[in-house]
Every structure is written in C-alpha cells, then in structure tokens.
Fold:
Amino acid sequence: MTARETVVPVLLEKVYKLIQDKLDLAHRPLVTQLAQHMFSNVSQDDLIQRNESDLYGAVVSLWHHINEKKADDISVRVFNPTVSRQGWQSTHTIVEIVVPDSPFLVDSVKMALTRLDLSSHLMLHNPTQILRSDKGDVVGVSANEGVFQSLFHIEVDRLSSKAEMTQLKEELVAIFRDTGLVVNDWMKMVERLQTVTDQVEAQKASIPVDEKRFEETVAFLRWLGEHNFTFMGYKEYDLVSVDGDTVLKPTQEQGLGLFANSNRVRDVKLSEFSDSARLEAKKPYVLILTKGNTASRIHRPAYTDYIGIKKFDENGKVIGEHRFTGLYTSAVYNHTVETIPLVREKVERILEASGYREGSYSYKALHNILENYPRDELLQAREEELLEVGTGVVQMQDRDLLRLFVRKDPFGRFFSCMVYVTKDRYNTELRRQTQRILKQYFGCEQEVEFTTYFSESPLARTHYIVRVDNNNMDVDVKTIEQNLMEVSSTWDDRLSESIIANFGESKGLPLSKEYMRAFPRSYKEDMMPGSAVADIERLEALSEENKLGMLFYRPQEEASDSKAVRLKLFYQSDEPIHLSDVMPMLENLGLRVIGESPYEVRKTNGVTYWILDFSMLHKSEETIDLREARDLFQQAFAAIWAGELESDGFNRLVLGAGLSGREISILRAYARYMRQVGFPFSQQYIEDTLSHYPELAKGLVKLFAKRFDPKHKGSAKGQQDLINTITEQLDHVESLDDDRIIRRYMEMISATLRTNYYQVDENKQAKPWLALKMKPSEIPDIPAPVPVFEIFVYAPDIEGVHLRGGKVARGGLRWSDRQEDFRTEILGLVKAQQVKNTVIVPVGAKGGFVCKRQHTMTGRDEIFAEGQRCYKRFIRALLDVSDNIIEGEVIPPKNVVRHDEDDPYLVVAADKGTATFSDLANSVSAEYNFWLGDAFASGGSNGYDHKAMGITAKGGWESVKRHFREMGIDCQTTDFTAIGVGDMAGDVFGNGMLLSKHIRLQAAFNHMHIFIDPNPESASSWEERNRLFNLPRSSWEDYNKELISKGGGVFSRRSKSIALTPEIQKMLGTKKASLAPNDLIKMILSMKVDLLWNGGIGTYVKSSNETHTDVGDRANDVLRIDGRDLRAKVVGEGGNLGMTQLGRIEYALAGGRVNTDFVDNVGGVDCSDNEVNIKIFLNGLVSNGDLTIKQRNQVLESMEDEVGEIVLDDAYCQAESISVTEHQGVGLVKEQIRFIHTMEKAGYLDRGLEYIPDDETLLEREKQGNALTRPELSVLIAYAKMVLKEDLVCDEIANDEFHAQQLIQYFPTELRRNYVQHMDNHPLRAEIIATALANQMVNEMGCNFVTRLQEETGADIVDIANAYTASREIYGFGDVLKRIRALDNVASSEAQYDLIFHVRRAMRRISRWLLRNRSGKQSVTALVELYRDDVNAITKVLDETLVAAEVEEHNSVAKVWVEQGVEEELANSVARLSSLYSALDISTVARETGKTVEQASKLYFNLGDRLSLHWFLKQINSQAVDNNWQALARAAFREDLDWQQRQLTGQVLTCGCAADLDVIKALDDWMESNAVSLHRWESILNEFKVGSVHEFAKFSVALRELMLLNLNCMSKD
Structure:
C-alpha cells in the first residue's frame, strides 16, 4: 500500500513563493529546501491562523542562524521578533536552536520547557544534513551529504522580561552541554561496566555472597550492558578513614558522562548516612540499587537510577564503590520479570516464601501482582517487603477495600507508598486527597509524586513517592490507611451504610444499589448521607396517587426563632419543575424565596427523580413553630400543587394564622362571593387585612365551624359569643376598611344557611368543592333584585352561583365566560327568568358557573370536556346542600347543619354552553339518589328534545303569526321578507326559519358568516334551509350558492371588506360600493323588511338613550343599532336578550311590533317544566311499582306532540292577552298606572329595573294617544302572574274540588285517561293548580283584574279566584273564547280582540257581582250550581224577554262584527253579554219571589225599559272618569242601579201572586199605583237628557231618588 501524496497546503506554497521572489538567486533553492524540510511534519492545525509573511520570516531567520554558526557550535537564541527589527512578528517568544545532532535532544528540550512551565505553541525540529564549503558557508541542505545538525524553531508563551529569556537560554545551553557529555562518554561507560563486571567475577571467591545470588548479580550487570540502561555518569569511590570517620572519597581519575564535571562529585561521610543506609553500605551484597535524589534533565524526567557496585579486598571487605547513574531503558519496564536477571530470582524467592501452592489461584494472583509491580520497586525493595505487599493484595480478594503499603528508602530519601483500591473508587479527588494525607503525615516539602496503574484486575494501584530529608521515623500504616479509607469512602458509601442501617439488609441492599450513583455531585456536596436517606424514603413513597413529596424544615444550623426555613420537593419526571411554577406559590404562602437548588436523581433502573431544595425567609410577624406548622404547610402546598387549593395571598394564613388550606378556602370562597356581589374591596386588600389580623381570621373560621360543624349542632349561643368576641377585637382595628371587611365576613357567615364543608365522599375525603347556601336578603348592600335563596359554589377550578326566586324555582345553568362578574350576568338572567316562568309552575331560578382553567386549554374538544367536568362538579355541589325526599319523607343532607326549613325542590335546565348536558346532570342526580331522578334536568335522553320538537321556535312563531295577523297577513300562506340572526344549525334559528314555507330570507348572519340573498324564492330556499338544518354542524358556508339569487352570497366576517353588488345596494338602500362586515350587518339590521327573527346569542338592538356599555355585550358593540333605526315591521325574539328592554320600547313606540324575549321564547321553559312535572308524577308511579322505567319512557315519548300543543297554547294565550290589552289602548292607562303602584307598594315591582316609565311619561303618552307598549305590557302581565301564582298556592284553592280540575287538565290526555286517580299525590299539586289558574286568569282578564277587584270589593284573592272561575263556568266563557280563537285569519284581529274584550268585561262584572252578592264563603261548585241553569234558561229566552229596541241595538253591534268575519251566532251571543249580565240579578229575584226565571227576566227588562233604567245605565257607563275615586264611584253607581232594579222587579213580582202571572200587566198595574213616585224619577231623568256631560253628584242624587222610589213602593205594599 503506497502512502498518498501529501498535498502541499496553500499557505506553504505562498511561503515558497515569497522565498522565490525575495531571496537572491543563489540562496533560493537552499532556503526552499530548508523550508520544505522544516515544514515536512507540520500538522494542518498548526498552520491555522498564521500568515505567509511570518512563516517566511521564521525560515529566513533560521537560515541566517545556521549560516552564522559553525557546524559544532551550540547556539540558542530566545527573542520576541518585531517587524521593525526582524522584519516579521509573532505573538509568542521564539526559541531558535542550532546544535550538532545528537540523541535525547527533543525530549530534553520539551522537559526543560515543562520544568519552566512554558507551553509550546509550535515546535518545528528536524535533524538536517548541512553541507558547508571550506569557508564554512552552507552549500547544501538535506542533500544526503554534509554534517547532521539539529534545528529547532519553537514558539513558547511570550516572555516579557529579559531575565526570563536569559534563564530559558541558559537552561537549554546547560542541557545541551550535559547531553554532549552523556553522549560522548556513553561507549566509555559501557566499557567501564564490562571491566568492573569482569573484576567482580574474578573476585567471586573472596566476596561473601551466596553463589546463586552472585551469579544473578553478574548476569544482571551483563544484561545492563546490553542496551538495558542509558548511562549518564560514572565515578569510582574509595572507602577511607579520616579522623575516625569513614568517608567515601572520589578517586583521582576523572569521572565519565555527567560526572566528568567535577562539581558533581564530593566526599561523603558515612556518619552522615542514616542507619539504614549505613547498614546497606556495609551489607555483604555486591549491588546497591536505588534511586538518585535528583530528576534527570535528559531523555526522561524520571529520578535517575543508581547502581552501586561495591569494591572488595581479598578478605571480602568493602573498600569502595563503582557508581553508575542513568535510566533503565524501556526493556526493564516492558519485558516480563522472567527475562530480567536478579529480578526473576527475587520473584521466585517471594513466591516460594508465600507458601502458596504452585498453580493455585493465590499463587497465580501473587505472580501477577509481582509481574505488574513497578520495576523500580522490584529492583529496590527487599523481598520481605515485596512479600508483604503481594500477600496483602491477594488477601484483598478484589473486595472493595483500601490497602496501603509503605517502604522506606534505605538511604532515607523517600517513602515509597503503594495504595491499592478498587477501580470504581479511584478518582482524581481520591488521588489528590491521598497526596495531601501522605504529605501531611510524612512532613514532606515537595509535591508527592504518583503513578497510577490500571489492569484487568478490579484494583487500581497508585504508587506514591514521598520525598523527605530523612525518613527515619516510625510509620503507623493503619492510621494512614484509616484516614485514606475515610477519604476514599465516598458519600455513596456512607449513603449505603445509612440505607442499610435504616431499612435493614433485605430492603436496604437493593435500595442502596438502586441509589448507588443516583445523586448528583452538587447534592452530595450540600447534603449529608443521613438526610439523603430521609429523601429516599420520600422518593420511594411517590406514586401515581402521590406525585409530589415534600419536606418543610428548618436547617439545624438555624435558631428556632429564625426566619429561615427550607422546603424540599420530590417528584418523578424527566424535566425539572420550573422555578416560575413554584415561586409564586411559595410567595403566596408568605415566604420569600432566596435560593433554589435542583438535584436530578437518576436511579440505576433509569427512573429519574427531582429534588428541589428552596431556601426561604418567612414574612409573618410571629415566629413559626415548625412542629405545628409543618403538616399544615405540607398539606396546603400539596393541595396547591395538585390544583386543589388556589395559590393566592390567602395562603399566607397557613403560617400566619395556623389555618389549614381547607379552612382558608372558606375565607377565600366568601371573598370570591364578595367580589361577585360587588363588595368594593379587591381580593388582595381582603388578603392583606386577614394576614394583618390573623386572630380575627381564626375567629371567622371558628364562627363558621360553630355555625356548621355538626358536632356543635349550630348552637346559636356559641355563635353569638364568638360574634361578640370578634366584635370586641374589632375595637383594636384601626382602619375602617379592615373593620368593614371583617364585619362583612361575619354578616355573610350569618346569612349562610347550609354548607357542604363537613361532608365527606365515599373515601372519607373532604369534598373538593365548597357549597354555601345563603339567604341574600340578610346580606347588606347586595345588588337588586335579591333572590330568595342562593347557593354559591367555590372550587379552585370552578365557581358558580345558583339563584332562586322561591322554593319551587327553575331555570337554566349557564356556562359563563365572565370570570369576574358571572353573578351579575346570572342576576340579569334570573330577572328575565322570573318573568318568563310566570307561565310555568316554578318561579325563576338561574345558575351559572365558570371553568377557571378554561383559558389554559386549546382544542374545542378539550374545552368541552372541561366544561362537562365542571358542570358535574357544580351540580354535585348544589345537591350537597339540598334536601331529598325518600318515600314521601324529607331527608336532610348528611353532615349539613340547616338554618332553614325543608327545601327539596331543585331542578336545572340547559342554557348557553350546557345545551347538551342534561344527561350529565341527571347522572349526578342518580348518583345522589335525588328524588327527582331524571326530572332533575329536563331534555335528557329520556326527555323532550327541544331542538327536535322545535318548541322554542314554535312558541316564538305564535307571536310572529299574531303580529302578522294584526297587520292582516297570514304569514303561513303569504310570502314575506325576513332577516335573521343565527344559522340553520341552531335550534331556534334553524327551526324558526322552517316554520313557514313563505319566508323569503334576504339576509342572516352568525359569528362567522353573513348570508345575503337579495331576491329569494320562498319554496326553493325553504328546501335548502331544511337541508342545512338536517346537515350536522352545518354553517352558512354549506348553503348551495347556485340557489342564491343574483348579487347575493355568503361572506366571511373575517374579511376586511365586502364588495356590494347592485342587488345588495338596492336591498339595503345604499350607494356604498363596499362595507366592512360589521357595517354590513349594521345595515342589514336597519333595512326595510317584514320580519327580523333573532335566533342567535348577543344583543343587537338598544335604545338611543343607552350606551353600548350599559348593554353589557362587548362582542357586538360594533354592530348594534338603536330601536328607532330598526325598520323591520315585526320582531320575533326566539333568542334571549336580542334587544334591550328600552330598545324594544323605543322600537314599539316607533310602530314596531314586538313582545319581549320572555314572551316569545317561553316555549322552551314551558316544555321543560311540563316534562319535569310529568316525570315527577310518573317517577312516583315507577317507585310504587305501577310502571317500569321502560314503560315510563314510552309513555313520555308518546305524549311529546300533545305536550308541544299544550305549550303552544300557553304561548298563544299569553300573546293574545297582551294584544287584547294593547287593543284597548289609551283607555286603560290610568288603570295600569294604578296596577303599577299596587305592585310597587307591595315590593314586587322595581320600576327602574324593569324599565316601566314613570307616571308623568305615561300620562304624557296618554295625552298623545299612546298607551303602554307591548314590551311594557309583557312585563306587567308577567308580574301579575308571578304575584298571583304565589298567592294562589294555598290549601283553600288546592282543596277546592273545582279548582282541582286544573291539575287534571294540566296533564296530557293519556295520563288523564289512565292515571287520574294518582294525580292528587303529585308533590307539586298546589303549585300546579295555582300556576294554571293564575295563567288562565291573567291571560283572560288582563294584568290588573285581581288588584282592581280587590280595590272595588275588598275581597281576598281566593274569593276573587273563585268568583272568576264560577262566572267563567256559569256563562260558559271558556267555549266562547275557544270559538273566538278559532277565527284566526278568518275574522279581523280587531274584531277578535273586541269580542274578547267584551267577554273580559262581562266576566269582570259578573265576578264583582258574585263577590258583592255572595253569602259567606261559597265554593265554586256551589256558585255554579246556584246560577248556571238559570243563566242558561235566560239566555235561551233573552231576545223574547228583551225590549225590541234593545234587541235591535245588540244586533247592530253584532252586525259590525259579522262584517269583519265573525260567525253570526258568536257575534250575537257576545253582543248580548251586556244584557245577560243581569241574569244573576234576575235569577236571585226569581228565587226570592218563587217565580220562574222567564217571568222574572221579562219583567226585569221591561221594567228597566219603562223606567229608563237601561238608558240611565248607559249614561253611567259613558261617564268619563279622571281618577280612581271617580272610577270607584262609577262602579258603585252601576251596582246601586242594578240593585234598585232587582228590588223593584222583586216588588212587582210579589204584587202578582198567580203562578201564570202576566208580567206586563203586573208592571202596568204597579206603575199606575206608584205614578207619583215615578213622576219624580222621570223629572230627574229629564235633567239628564239635557246635555251629555254630567257631574258625578247628579248621579248620586238620581240614585237616591230611585232608592226613595223603591222605599215608597215597598211601604205601599
């Protein structure tokens, strides 16, 4: 294989080029040769960062140097080249050497540099053949002829001082001189050794040495001469006596090698030798082998080897020595011992002496030890010493021990120490420490030298040479060994011992192996092995359940009152905990972190743990007793870490007040509640107050415990005592704010009725959420409206609130995103719910919760799952403090002290964000075995699916149809234009936009898209909408673009701007070419269109007097419009809060048709309530065993359509009621004001809150011909129902058999058919009856019916309800109303409302008559039985009994209605109600006089006509009233007149006694006989016939006359 041609580096090429260019012709080739020769072995790395000019300079400099010196000169130059002087430069000091070639030069130069502590940065050296001319000029360079010279170019660390440079130069020159001496005398010395060996051999007989050893000695000497020793010096000495002392004296003959220099040779007195050396000198051995006491400066930096060959006289006495110094060559170190004379014999003897059997393990081991033993030692040491070492090491048996063997140098110059230790244990640190210990022990001045040897053996051997002036001392090897063991015993060893001591051997050994090298160096430096064992216990205790271990402690070094504390955290993970995660937690616990040390612990099985050690100062004023605080702190921190406790400033109370984390969460929960109810102090301020007054904080927690801990049974006295104590302490609180905060805490705790704080789960663990049931009316300054009950739920991951308007209340649970003020949002909704729930049994409730960790999540699914988890937690918390009903008995929750009565009714419903969560709620209900079962949350998988039923949209559509009917349009058969908010995937929008096939949807938008179809085709667009509705998760994007009319499209709301086509411009009535999406929506909202259908979320219309901030829906601020700008003719509010109430009113005053959201979308809540009440009923049957769950579900499902109809009927009637009232217009304003006042006085209605205008505004409106708008009427009707419903929940109503029919009518047909006998057991029987009755009364009679009758008659509500029900039944008004409603789209709506108003008025008058003329408390049934037959009889003969003129009058009224599309019979019967009202009077007269009702009837009407009483009644009715008193007076006149007419009729009937009385004749007779009195009456009537405006006083006088007439007539009888 041929070596690759080396490529010449470019840099060198440049150097050669410079030589060519710059030098004269003669020198060029020579200098080039020199350069090539010098650079031939240079490495590429050495050329980096150098430039050609400096390299060129270096070569030229060397060239001159060679030229200036002779071939045998030793020349060394040391200089710092500069450009100015040398023409080149270097950052280093340059050493140039030109010397005759010789061995050892390079080694020796390198050693010299090392000795002087200089680094070499570049060393170019090569023996170069240089040919010189006779004159001495160089004529050839490495051209295979000439003398070899060694050339060096060396760059060393820069030397700045002259002295240093001189020192270096002199050192090098001295070395070269020595080298010269050694090299020149080398052969002579080899020869001298031979001569001496021959002499010794010749003296064999006289030398007292045993033969074998002698031969070995000679063989050794001969072996040395065979290139196994590098000779450096020789000198012969004689042993002579001088002054009684024996002296070793150099002979006259000049020494060789280094000893040729006589300065290196001197006399030595034997008395100056140490004892051992003297002994050694006098021993009868031929050789003395030892080490010299100086290190060689040549070849190898080792101490020179000393070989002394004694001179003997004939008697075998020592008379001198031949001394050789030098260095053994590598052969001594590398050849096996068997090849080295003297040594092999020594080894044999040692093996023999060991007593080991040849071939045994120990024999081989010992042989191996000696074979690898340092050769210098083998040569120098005594056999006994070697045997001791060898057997000692064999006995270690490769165990983890440490052994030390010490040998003294016989000449007292050093100790040779052998340290054996396992390889694992050997490290630089141990070596350093050993050096230190040896140096210290032996009192050595120099550094201790060492050589370390590793082989396959598990042991490492280090040979230390400790140089001393005199080694004559006793050495206690065991003490040193002990110290070394202590040093070598690593931290891990001590850990192992501690682990085994702590855990016992069986458990400890495996553990100690696992943790053998687990801990990092930093940990070992900081921690004792003992504390590591404690840490290991904690690490081993970590598991899936226990992910974080910890230790809160105070270092031993700190005093017990010190502020310094530490915390260790233990956990398993590949990544360390980030400091930023832990710091805030610790700061919040009142600790200042001043340092942190993370330690990664990696077990041998690869498991990684982390230990974090925090050093901290605590901030509390008190000193902390760590024994007490530790557990509290650790539990709190673990809980914070696990997310079970929040990390905030309240946690300072753990150390500051000694409260547990859970106790603190009570205070935190109340603080959060304060935030929600708008208490003015921030949480941080509250935290500071409680930290500042830890005793008060403790007191508050004690007060909570006194009130709610079951063991105190809620003792009132204990609470009062505590409140007094806290109040006393408050006297020492300086700040008024702090005082207010503590007092507010006390008030809130006292206003709390129940809590689940003391409940535990099945694992006996405290519940991770806190529920507080409050009575908000007892909390001062709480914002209105104030609910009756409230449950506040607090947990680190969720907060929520559930507000109820009464004991039986329902409403949705909303997943709110308003972390800071969700209660405000819920409060607004509960108000809306209150008015919405008037249609259903329960009053309003609303709940809302926030997921506090939602912001940390990303994906939609992850957030959804978190919402579900929080929702379930929220519901569990609500059920924790709710009573249950088991087998008809109320069972309070476990471990809950109740400060209120039984309260078992809790239902929830879906709302924003929780639409699909009903099954979750019901699963929790089942988990708690709650009495409502799956009636707890309506709409679950076994409930009515609102979206599938489309019930909310259908309910709203009833209002839309009515608005259109009132405009004379049937929107189910006539095309109309519409715009909408929402998309077809939504329940309300999707269902709503399919409810008529004649919708022409021109535009719609949701949060993503804007859909525009300027000229839609109703049929095809309906089909496409239907397709989208059935397409899962569809959006406007999916709408088939081909079906959109020209110019339309679907636009993204993310676009910067949207170009408007001519068609869109025309539709919007704008000339703008493009608009930003939000501006486009704004224009869509304000375009001319028939219907705006809101099925979305958000508030889009406000009044011009409201700001966007007032609205509280920031997302839609940019596109909201004012009510006056809304130009749609009709608004259907399927969604909640689509308009503000003031926005609706403004729109209605401008002629728009709108109800309110709670009227339009009542369908959903109504349907849910029906479902709940049906389920409560059916669940009762299931638990009695009358039904199985499966049958129950089938029954439920089968009734879905009918429930839908019931709900729509409710929606229909409610909207109708508003319309009838609105239709009456201005005439009712004063009554309505009266009603508003009544409701205000009773504390039900807050005018400002409900945006009902003040009296001035209403009277102003009345003058302008405007009455209350529909949105305002909607509120009044809701309040009327709300109050009435509450008042009707009483036994008198519930137990009335007639009202009880309401209960049966409430349920669908199937239940009425099969289970009617069980209905009376319904837990909400009274509430259902009251609700049905209240709704019916208000819908049919208007909002102020009850209050007006109360004022007019003073009757109580039960009597009024009975009178109303009786009048409805007696006259069959229910049927009449049904027939009127059947005229939708047949008759005009005005005619329908007229008819209903007539019915309403008749019912009111009849009810009043019944209240005025009743005898005692009569049941409805009794009243009906008393009057119904008579009324029916009178109705049949009415036209015959009436005077012709009156019949004519009735017919003309009816005719107007018939022309408007009313059936004739219906029109006639309603027209005659004003006369039929008298039927009750007639019936009474007939009964009193014993005549038939037909007779009485005929007489009554004729008498009224003859005496002009009917005319007079008309005068009364047409009398205008200005105030309530006048209204009452007018009613009184009417009653008086009726009564007088009844009396007079009675009188006339009594006159004629015959049964077949001719009433007309009787009347004639009577009038004749009372002519005088009648004349007086007629003259008064004539007064009335003049003019049409009369004073009230005139009526009083006239009625007085009539009474006198009555009395006169009676007295005549």
